[in-house]
Amino acid sequence: MDLADKEVGRTLNAATAPRADYDPAYDPLLDSTPGQGRDYAPSYWIGTAGEPPGDDGPVTQDMDADVVIIGSGFTGLTTAIFLAQEYGIKATVLEANRTAWGCSTRNGGQAQCASGRLKRSQWISRWGLDTALKMHRECVEGMENFKELIKDIDCDPQPGGHLYVAHRAKVMPALEKEAALLRETFGYNARILDAQTVRNEWVGDHEAHGAMHEPEGIGIHAAKLAFGYLKKARALGVKVHPASPVQGWETRNGQHYLRTPGGVVRARAVGVATGGYTANALNPEFRNRLFPILSNSMVTRPLTAAEIEACNIRTHQVLTDTRVLRNYYRLLPDNRLQIGSRSAISGRDAPQEQYRRSLEDGLARKFPALKGIQIDYSWWGWVDVSHDMMPRIVQPNKNETLYYAMGYGGNGVMYSAQAGRRLAQLIAGKGGELDLPIFQSRLPFPNVREMVTSEAFAPFRRFGQRFLYRWYYLKDEVL
């Protein structure tokens, strides 16, 4: 190996350095592209994961690929992993910025037995009991798939289940009804805890009026998981090219031509896994099919033993409250407390301090002993919410080799792995058995279609979102 070959080897075994600063105001509803080679958001995950693993560098010339995956987060990387492991297909992954730059390094790190934002009772109302039972089995299978996939990845797992905390007494009857349904109809051992049990034996959340405990739930370190997926994918022969945004897309005679700044990538099939960072301009198929919303998250300095005792935190399990605009929180392995919830309406407003202060106020309501505690990390990220609150893993047109998986609505940490497995199945032409609604239909448009068929109407959509957030606040805190 000569000196030039050694230099190439060093380059491909190192992470591609950022070409541009992190953009805190990026908005997928308004911006045509997420950028090129931008640095990571300053999340706790990125701050504590160590150096990113090596990648294959940006695209530098025209190239051919059997399968291209757009997006290098949880879904994109797991799709590539399953394509290689189960079907012998070595995909090429294109990423606009740095590996796992979007949702996968900005989420709350909570893996729950869910795929979208709807409860099991809502599945029954929408699709009937038989389909709801199949959907539940898909989620349970997804959780087992997730556990198997991460068992050799050092991602600081915190297993044990999920505590769904009633933030007001009035929600307990509905929680009790849902728990009974889970036990009696779905065979899923959810149990109800009264307020005293929650506060004395689990967590001294001052807002807790009881809780439902689910047996499945795992907290993970989001960036360590993403980086573990990256190492696993590349070890299987997957090529991962950061700083290579798709800036143009043509399909001719069944072949896809993806234009990046460094060259055109020709592909037989394309899988899209861009989640909450899916720009409307990427492909006409995705225009306005997602409604991205922002979620804020913050992490405190490490708590002292006295502070943990004052808050009576006796679990490291993942916690969520029953607000529509829910809070998710937990004690991390290094004894920091993380909490997250809704954020701004638009990317432009996201950096405003009022959203961080809102989280600080929420933390103080739950744990008065932590009022004014130092916050070491604060960030926000886009969540890919579908208009019917459920994801899609689908080939939208049976005559075209375009596939996608997105729309998890905040439950993508676990289900992205199952979605990656299902997306790989579809791409490999083995998806005939996938008969659930989330595999059979496209992401829907919103009901008032004429309001969303052009980016010119984005301000009106955001106006509607402001109205909804106000209504949710009243429903959560007042009514």
Please tell me about this protein's structure:
- Residues 1-11 and 448-457 have low confidence and may be disordered.
- The strands form three sheets. Strands 1, 2, 8, 9, 10, 11, 17 and 18 form an eight-stranded mixed sheet that branches. An eight-stranded mixed sheet has the order 5-6-4-13-14-15-12-16, with helices on both faces.
- 33% of the residues lie in helices and 20% in strands.
- It has 13 helices and 18 strands.
- Strand 17 and strand 18 (402-406) form a beta hairpin.
- It is globular.
- The chain is of the alpha/beta class.
- It has a domain at 158-214 and 292-384: D-Amino Acid Oxidase, Chain A, domain 2.
Key features of this structure:
alpha/beta, eight-stranded mixed β-sheet, 479 residues, D-Amino Acid Oxidase, Chain A, domain 2, 13 helices, disordered N terminus, 20% strand
Short summary:
The chain is an alpha/beta fold and 479 residues long. It is built from 13 helices and 18 strands.
